Write a sequence for this structure.
């Protein structure tokens, strides 16, 4: 478990979700993009909560370790989403000709 501190509030969530949220936040800021991510977390009182984080340039987000023995909240879908966003922002897209370019090409004729 890790503490996620955002603005003036701190919540507990799983290690993987916290680490990927911080990584995505940094990539979004670096690339000039923004996004929002919803995580299942534990509030100050230990109750299960749903926390929505708005990420972008200027986001102040910190992840810190904890000794909590509580079970980690389920965030499989959020982690998958964040991994997809990180891949989309960091892996260059393949160059593919447009339909117009593809159909307007002259047919190839071999001179034998």
């Amino acid at each position: 478990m890790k503490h996620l501190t955002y603005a003036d509030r701190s919540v507990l969530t799983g290690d993987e979700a916290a680490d990927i949220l911080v990584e995505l936040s940094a990539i979004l800021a670096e690339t000039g993009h923004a996004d929002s991510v919803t995580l299942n977390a534990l509030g100050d009182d230990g109750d299960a909560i749903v926390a929505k984080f708005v990420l972008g340039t200027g986001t102040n987000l910190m992840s810190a370790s904890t000794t909590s023995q509580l079970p980690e909240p389920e965030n499989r879908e959020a982690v998958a989403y964040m991994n997809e966003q990180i891949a989309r922002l960091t892996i260059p897209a393949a160059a593919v000709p447009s339909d117009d370019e593809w159909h307007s090409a002259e047919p190839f004729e071999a001179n034998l």
Q: What stands out?
A: DSSP finds three helices and five strands in the chain.
